[in-house]
Write a structure and sequence with these properties.
heterodimer, A: mainly beta, 11 strands, about 0% helix, B: 11 strands
């Protein structure tokens, strides 16, 4: 079967660092994505990994290990506005995108 | 640059009725995708257009759903007849490069 697993909820403190993990088992792999979605809004693209390693983009970084079927999104210097759901998605065969259920991150003062 | 737009933003219909959702992608984006998020579940892929051609419609739940993209510009997703389980948020996304999809605001469909 195909699974994309990520924690349901996480809480962190403003200014801290948080790591959101994602494990996947899919038929085919053409890349892994992280999206941010605020309540009632559309998902917005954060990052894309297709090769193993770390991709850094400002306060956000994303890591991929294809052999382990594992990725994480690292958020540094957390801000209150970072409170949102973070969606892990895998681009598989047949050009379809499969999403995890999302991790709801709450940033507290 | 205008983003992906979707119409309507909300739709409330009765079971058995027909609803048509519209998506206008970012100008110049050949790739257009439809997704659906049912309450409490993850976002699920429905189908993918490249210009006016259906590249992959493996995610379409059944034959009550019909997607079109005449002329390779905007797309419509028709649900006929609607059932209670069709309620959810329908997202459209477009991209030029396949890995960077821009999502529209979604259409919230409620079937009563």
């Amino acid at each position: 079967g195909q699974n994309i697993d990520q924690p349901t909820e996480m809480t962190a403190t403003e200014g801290a660092i948080v790591q959101i993990n994602c494990t996947y088992q899919t038929s085919g792999f053409n890349g892994l994505f992280w999206y941010q979605q605020h309540a009632g809004e559309a998902p917005t693209f954060l990052s894309y990994n297709v090769l193993d390693g770390l991709e850094e983009k400002g306060r956000f970084s994303s890591f991929l290990s294809r052999s382990k079927g594992y990725s994480y999104l690292l958020l540094k210097e957390l801000q209150m506005k970072d409170s949102a759901s973070y969606l892990c998605a895998v681009w598989g065969n047949n050009n379809d995108m499969r999403f995890g259920a999302g991790t709801r991150l709450t940033v507290k003062p | 640059e205008a983003g992906v737009t979707q119409f309507p933003s909300h739709s409330v219909i009765e079971k058995g009725q027909t609803v048509t959702l519209r998506c206008d992608p970012i100008s110049g984006h050949d790739n257009l995708y439809w997704y659906r998020r049912v309450m409490g579940k993850e976002i699920k892929f429905l189908l993918h257009f490249v210009k006016e051609s259906k590249q992959d419609e493996s995610g379409m739940p059944n034959n009550r759903f019909l997607a079109e993209r005449t002329g390779g510009t905007y797309s419509t997703l028709k649900v006929q007849p609607a059932e209670l389980e069709d309620s959810g948020v329908y997202f459209c996304a477009s991209s030029q490069r396949s890995y960077e999809q821009y999502f529209g605001p979604g259409t919230r469909l409620t079937v009563t």
